[in-house]
Every structure is written in C-alpha cells, then in structure tokens.
Design goal:
With 665 residues, the chain is α/β, with parallel strands linked by helices. The protein is 65% helix and 8% strand.
Length: 665
C-alpha cells in the first residue's frame, strides 16, 4: 500500500469540505469560499493538518482539467467562432490595458520595471475555474456577459504561454524571442491538429467506445481524450486547462457530448473542491496581520482596476452598460494560472518571499470575494444603466426616419433577444405580415441585421427608454427570448409598468423560473424543460404507433396538470370568474378553412358543421374582409376564411378535420 499519508490527508480534507459545505449551504453562501477557508485552516500556514501538500496540489490540478473539459463540452467550435470578437478584441484589449495600467501603477510605487511588468502579468489573469463554475451554477454561461467572460478568459489562458516564456527574460536568466516564436508556432500547429481530430479521428474513437455498450469503457475513453489532450497541450507550451477545454470542444461537436458530460460531472465536482482547497493552502494568514492596510488596499485596487478595464472593453465592443458592468464584476479577481506564473517568477528572482506572500494574500482575497461580486453584479449593472440615461443607444441610435417609422407602428410584436427563437419568430411574423420590432443587446448583431432591413434596436430591453423606442405602449405582444433569467425578470416588470395591457410571453429554461415571472406580470411562460419533456414522450409514443388522438389526449392532460400546478390563480375581474364557471373544459381557438376541406364553400347548415363536430362557430373572418359575428346556418365558409370556434378538446379536433382537405379513400 503506497502513500498511506495521502489517504489520511484526503480523509481530513473531504471531512472538512463536507462540514464546511453544509455550513455554508445553511448560511446560503457559495461553497467555493468555504473550500478556500478550508485550505487556509488545514494548510502549512494554518494548523498543518495536511502533510502531503504537493500530492494534494497534483490532484487539484486534475480538478481544473476536468472543469475546463466540461465547459468545452457545453460549447462547440461554432460557439467559439461566434465569440471571436470577444475573444480576440475583448480579450486582447483587457490583457493589454490591465497589464499596462498595473505596470505603471506598481512602477510608480518604486518597483523596478521588470518586477512591475511581471506583477502586471500576474494581475492580468482572471480565474477561469471560479468564474465558469459560478456562472454554470447560476445558469449564466449563455448570457451576454457569460459569453464575454468566456471569450476574455480563453484569450487570457492563451497568453499564459508567452508570459511563462517571458518570465526568465525579465529576470535576466536568458531566453530569446526566437524560442518564444518557436513555442508559439508549436502551439498553433497543436490547435490546427485538434481541429482536424475533431472532424476525422475523435468521432470514430467515440463510436467504437459507445458500440461496446459498456459504460466504463466509454468513460475511460472520455477521460483518456481529456487527459491526453491536456498532456499534449502542456508539451507544446500551452496550459493543461486550455488543452482540456480544447478536448471538450472537440467532443462537443459529436453526438456523444451529453453522455460524456453527465459521466464526467461527478468526477469534476470531487476534484474541483480539492483545487480550491489547494489555493487556500498557499496563503499565510500572518501576512494580513503584518500588513493589513497594504493587503486590503491592494485587493481593492485590483478589483477596481480589473472591473474598470473589463467594463470599458465590453462597452467599447457594443455591449450594453448593464452587460458590461456585470462582466466587469465577474472578471475582477486574480486567476489560478497566476500562481503557476508566480512560482516561475520566484525562481527567476522577480518576487521576494515577502512580495510573493502579499501577492498570494491579494489573489486569495479577490477569489474569496468573487462569489459575492458575481451575485450583486446584475443588480449593480441595472442600477448603473438606470442612472446613465441615453447611453444605451450609443452605437445603435435609430436614424430620424427609423424613429418616425417606429413611432408609427402599433398593435405590433416586440421581440427581446434575436437568438435562435427570436429569429424564427421574426421570420414567421414577416411571412404573415404581422408588424414587429426587435431589441437586442449585441451591437454587432443589431448593425448587421439593420443593414438587411430588419427592424431592430440596439439596447437592453429592461431599459424603459429602449422599450419606449420600440413602442411598448402601443404593442399587443412582448416576447422575451433571452437566456438571462435576471434580465428577463426586469424586462417583464418594466414592460408591465409601461403597458399594463400588453400580452407578455416569456421563454425560460426551467420550470422553477415560472412562478417568479408570472408574479411579475408575465402572461405566458414557456419553459424549455417542460416542452422538451412533452416532445420526448410524444416521439416515444409515435415510435410505438400510438394513435394520434391518444397522443393529443396525453399532451392535453400533461398541460392541464402543468397549468394547475405552476400557474397562479388569475387575478381577474368578477365577470371572467362568473363565465369560467360555465366554461369548464371549454376552449376558444382560431382555425383556418383550407382549400378542399369538407366544410368549405358551403353554408354551415348544409355541411351540418355543428352536428358533425359538436363545436360552435362564434365568428367568421372572411379572407376578402368582413367579420360575421354569431353566424347563422345560412352563412357560408369559404377557403381562406378564419373561424373562431368554441368547444371541448375532442369537439375541436373533429372540427379541425372538417376544415382540412379531404383525405382520399
């Protein structure tokens, strides 16, 4: 039995982690902070409970690898291409500005230029592990500020390679630019090889592993691809974590990505907790006692600097003020790769032991504050935007002609968010000649779509000014189709205040978000989780050749139970309550009379529509114009007419067969 000491250390750490996680859960605090505190208490500068610190750090590195691997699995190469502007321009701007500002500030405090530049590199890097973990837990990776954070973090990880190579040069220990160029060339070739493998090699390997139908073989194959790519990445000078992220991207484009993600997540969570503990072990609490003002001032300075730079870069790239501020708070810490860099700097003589401990204190302090900063960021961003009126339209102000056109539109649909759902809805509205306006917080998307004639405004839909420009006071329907749950709630609240009568349809990801949105004034909430469940069991029943009417009945029953469980009682007038007593299980629907239908081109009495379907024709809207309310048996139905029907689900289903083309015998 080898290294029994490591087993006892792991037992101590996991015991402390469980106790701290339970305590922080009761206090409603992020467990990451608890894990950092666990490391401080149990490490060599605390009570010295852990004897094999290097072994724990090695296991912790596996946690970072698995974390970045799962993040890559939730993206794809197409997603990465979509983030290219944020990655190169956002990440490049953030790195250069943070590096320059930190270098100038530390040199002004009396440090030599090489040391000041090195400290600038340390401060530039943010924590990929903490930020992505928190955004994933809060389901915010798909938001605009989540995308901005991912793009900037990936660029920072790419910068680790030249930073590590520049460190001995700054320390006067040799090295030259030709070796730096050679390493960068190797890294570029590695990335190209990864892209080729994504298309040609990896799918075949996964197909072979999945074909065995043995879960352990599939899991071992996934772990091998993850660790193997990370190892290859480190061999060419890139970071292990970046290699793991690339491995995740490679597998994300395959049909096995979801199974790989579900298998790896338990391993990731176990090893990831060790990573945060290992970070805490590096910190000597006595540094704060010796220099409290220096440490606190440095922590505040780093957070303020990185917040300002990231916010400015995000805003310059066209993000709304709220999105830019939220991203700024998210990246306002020092990252885990800075610890790797600091070790190289200490070896090169750039950091004295005292300066290194101050750096560690500042790094751990900013990491510990990150969960709180991310938690308050959306509210602070909304507050800042509210008090900077007019700046929302900086890059997307409509021309006078467009403003006049927007002011003239009425009875229209407003679409908040021009992603997949928003684009499809706009296409359908355009094809059916229903007027609409789009709001999107991505300036690049707004500019591109306006060039092709799309009626789109740049701005944050939670801003009353933006909604006013979109004509919220005259709109019939507002559709909120964004992935940001917090922003969705604000949009609903503001829109309901500006127009109490607008019908609001909200797209959410989970059922648990429904009650809050409905309470704020959302008319209808469409949770993707619920709709996906219905689509899955519908397809299963079709595979077993279950009749269509039975499938529709099951769908109706599930929707009825869903409405009773999740929708609050309507806060309606007495008149509606009285009618609802008599219309139990009765529905009003609108149907179209199709050419060749059994009920087309004949009076209602001749087709015996009421007798054959059981439903009642409430009104007829003729295609050529003219509305017939409460039609009699002498009123005809013609192809192209729109009919308002009332009846039960079964009656309306029979009516639908009379309004569709006859099926040849």
């Amino acid at each position: 039995m080898s290294t029994p000491g490591l087993l006892s250390d792991l037992l101590i750490l996991f015991s402390l982690c469980v106790a701290v996680a339970l305590a922080f859960h009761r206090l409603r605090l992020p467990p990451i902070v608890g894990f950092l505190i666990t490391g401080v208490v149990s490490g060599p500068y605390g009570f010295g409970l852990i004897r094999n610190v290097p072994d724990v750090e090695a296991l912790a590195e596996v946690g970072v690898i698995l974390l970045l691997f799962t993040v890559g699995l939730e993206f794809s190469l197409l997603d990465l291409a979509r983030l290219r502007t944020l990655l190169f321009f956002g990440g490049g701007g953030q790195v250069l500005l943070t590096l320059g500002a930190t270098t100038l500030a530390t040199h002004a405090l009396g440090l030599a230029w090489p040391v000041a530049i090195f400290l600038g590199m340390l401060v530039t890097l943010s924590s990929t592990a903490i930020v992505l973990r928190l955004y994933a837990e809060r389901d915010e990776l798909a938001t605009l500020y989540g995308n901005a954070a991912v793009g900037i973090l990936i660029f920072q990880d790419l910068c680790v390679v030249p930073m590590v190579l520049l460190t001995p040069i700054l320390g006067g220990q040799g090295g030259n630019l030709s070796s730096l160029g050679g390493t960068l060339l190797e890294a570029a070739l590695f990335l190209i090889g990864a892209l080729v493998a994504a298309r040609l090699v990896v799918p075949r390997i996964l197909h072979l592993a999945a074909g065995t139908r043995r879960r352990e073989i599939f899991l071992l194959t996934i772990v091998l691809l993850c660790l193997g790519t990370a190892w290859a990445s480190a061999r060419v000078g890139l970071s292990l974590a970046l290699g793991a992220f690339i491995a995740g991207l490679v597998i994300a484009d395959s049909e096995y990505s979801q199974q790989a993600l579900s298998d790896v997540i338990p391993l990731r969570d176990v090893f990831n907790s060790l990573f945060f503990v290992s970070i805490g072990m590096l910190f000597d609490i006595r540094t704060i006692v010796r220099s409290p003002l220096l440490v606190v001032g440095a922590i505040a300075g780093v957070i303020l600097l990185k917040f300002t730079v990231t916010t400015g870069v995000s805003a310059a790239l066209g993000q709304s003020i709220r999105t830019a501020v939220t991203a700024g708070f998210g990246l306002a810490q020092i990252g885990e790769f800075s610890f790797v860099l600091s070790a190289a700097g200490s070896s090169a003589g750039l950091l004295t032991p005292q300066l290194n401990q101050v750096f560690l204190a500042v790094a751990v302090g900013t990491m510990a504050l990150t969960p709180t900063l991310i938690m308050v960021a959306p509210a602070v961003g909304a507050f800042v935007e509210l008090h900077t009126r007019g700046s929302w339209a900086r890059l997307g102000t409509p021309t006078p002609a467009e403003q006049a056109k927007s002011a003239a539109v009425s009875d229209h649909v407003i679409i908040a968010g021009f992603g997949f759902n928003g684009r499809n809805l706009a296409r359908v509205l355009r094809n059916t000649s229903i007027p609409y306006r789009v709001i999107d917080a991505n300036a690049r998307v707004a500019r591109q779509e306006r060039r092709v004639g799309e009626p789109i405004l740049y701005g944050d839909a939670s801003s009353s000014e933006v909604l006013h420009h979109a004509g919220i006071e005259r709109a019939r329907v507002l559709v909120v189709a964004i992935s940001d749950a917090a922003a969705t709630r604000r949009i609903v609240a503001v829109a309901r205040r500006l127009n109490p009568h607008v019908h609001i349809i909200v797209r959410t990801r989970y059922l648990r978000e429904m009650q809050t949105v409905l309470a704020l004034g959302g008319g209808e909430v469409v949770p993707e989780e619920f709709e996906t469940a219905i689509e899955i069991f519908t397809r299963v029943l079709r595979r077993y050749l279950v009749p269509r009417d039975l499938i529709d009945r099951e769908v109706h029953e599930v929707r009825r139970e869903h409405d009773e469980m999740y929708r609050p009682l309507p806060d309606a007038a007495v008149r509606v309550d009285e009618i609802s007593r008599f219309l139990t299980d009765v529905t009003l629907v609108v149907m179209r009379v199709e050419r060749g239908a059994a009920a087309a081109d004949a009076p209602l009495a001749d087709t015996r529509f009421r007798e054959r379907s059981g439903s009642t024709v409430v009104a007829i809207q003729h295609e050529g114009g003219g509305l017939v309310a409460s039609p009699s048996g002498d009123d005809p139905l013609t192809a192209g007419d729109t009919v308002l029907l009332m009846g039960t689900t079964d009656q309306l289903e029979r009516a639908a067969t009379l309004l569709r083309p006859r099926v040849p015998a």
